[in-house]
Structures are given as structure tokens and as C-alpha cells.
């Protein structure tokens, strides 16, 4: 298997805080952490396993299992990140972590989502 992702830390300044993604290999597998906001934490753990695409065009998809801490919504970011990386890298991928801001606005939530998407797309280029 050709390896694309190597150990790195990606930081993205937002208008009100910072988002950090750390990535490293464990053998052929990939481990990622996501953290940011006023109170970084572990709000979920996502395990994504690559699988053949349902349209029959080879690998290109993944299936995820999620463990959430009650009341946390970090799955939205971590699941998307893990599934994207697992499918693209054809590697079992774990993403865990959390982002928290008190009194966060809808616009700030969208900024976090956009930043996470940009970070993963940059990583997968």
C-alpha cells in the first residue's frame, strides 16, 4: 500500500479561536485528533473502515462506528473526517476529540465545519 499521509499537525485560525488536527500513522492505520475552542475535550471516538463503493467502482467509501460522550455533538466533524481519510487512504482510521465554545453561534459552527473540511481536503491532496 502506498502511503500518502504522514505524521503532521494542521492548525487553522478561525475568527474567534483555533482548530487543530493531529495525524499520525500506527502501522498502516491512521489516528487523528481534533481539538479546538475554549474547552478542547474528547466528545467522541470514530472508527472508520474502508470498503468497496456500493456503486461497484472499487474502494472509495467507508463505514464508521461511533462512540459519543452523552450530550456532545463532535461526531459531526470527527465522523466526516474519519470517513474521508479511511476511504481515500484505504486505511482503518480513528478520529477522536472535541471542539467546544460557550454560546457558539450558527455562523461560528459553520466556520468550524468549513475549516475542518478545508483541512482534510488539503491533507488528502
Automatic annotation (TrEMBL):
It comes from the Bacteria. Residues 18-124 form the Prenylated flavin chaperone LpdD-like domain. InterPro entries: LpdD_chaperone-like. This is Prenylated flavin chaperone LpdD-like domain-containing protein. It comes from Anaerostipes butyraticus.
Amino acid at each position: 500500500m502506498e502511503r500518502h499521509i504522514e505524521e503532521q499537525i494542521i492548525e487553522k485560525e478561525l475568527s474567534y479561536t483555533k482548530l487543530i488536527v493531529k495525524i499520525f500513522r500506527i502501522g498502516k492505520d491512521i489516528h487523528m485528533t481534533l481539538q479546538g475552542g475554549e474547552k478542547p475535550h474528547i466528545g467522541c471516538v470514530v472508527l472508520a473502515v474502508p470498503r468497496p463503493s456500493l456503486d461497484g467502482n472499487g474502494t472509495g467509501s467507508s463505514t464508521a462506528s461511533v462512540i459519543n460522550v452523552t450530550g456532545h455533538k463532535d461526531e459531526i466533524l470527527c465522523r466526516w473526517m474519519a470517513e474521508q481519510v479511511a476511504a481515500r487512504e484505504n486505511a482503518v482510521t480513528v478520529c477522536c476529540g472535541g471542539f467546544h465554545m460557550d454560546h457558539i453561534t450558527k455562523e461560528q459552527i459553520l466556520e468550524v465545519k468549513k475549516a475542518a473540511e478545508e483541512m482534510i481536503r488539503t491533507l488528502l491532496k
